[in-house]
Design brief:
There is one protein chain. This protein is 64% helix and 7% strand. It is mainly alpha-helical. The protein has one domain: Winged helix-like DNA-binding domain superfamily/Winged helix DNA-binding domain (Arc Repressor Mutant, subunit A, Orthogonal Bundle), CATH 1.10.10. The chain has a two-stranded antiparallel ribbon with strand order 1-2. The longest helix is centred in the N-terminal third of the chain and has 23 residues, at 10-32.
């Protein structure tokens, strides 16, 4: 029986690439006092301020057990506020504070550094992103 080689596996290539990209962001994000998952949550809020916690979880593919502590830390840092819906108190909306909104310009440095480090032309970058999105939206394979 031939064993598959690690370097031939798509899953490992994607895993290694993801780790490298996350590491590339770490320096700037550490200076800003946020983690990579917090950065992703803020990115969603920069696009859609005031969405519900459940909508945010869907966008990030995170369950409430992971998302709740992340939001609590962002709240304690003064970057977001969580507010109960006026229509349904069970629904909580997440709003950026001024500090959270202002951070969007600061993370531009991290995004530029990562884009420069990847060293792909615009077409390669677009193709890689499209393929990664396609893989990310695969239905799980059931045994």
């Amino acid at each position: 029986m031939t064993t598959a080689r690690l370097d031939d596996q798509l899953c490992f290539a994607l895993y290694a690439a993801s780790r490298r990209l996350t590491t590339a962001y770490r320096g700037t994000l550490t200076e800003l006092g946020i983690t990579y998952p917090q950065y992703l949550a803020l990115m969603v809020l920069w696009e859609s301020d005031g969405i519900t916690v459940s909508e945010l979880g869907e966008r990030l593919s995170l369950d409430s057990g992971t998302l709740s502590p992340l939001l609590k830390r962002l709240d304690l840092q003064g970057l977001i506020e969580r507010r109960a819906s006026t229509e349904d108190e069970r629904r909580v909306h997440v709003h950026l504070t001024d500090a959270g909104r202002d951070m969007s310009t600061e993370v531009g440095r991290a995004q530029k550094c990562v884009a420069d480090a990847i060293d792909l032309d615009a077409d390669e970058f677009s193709a890689l992103r499209a393929l990664a999105r396609r893989v990310a939206h695969l239905d799980p394979v059931l045994d």
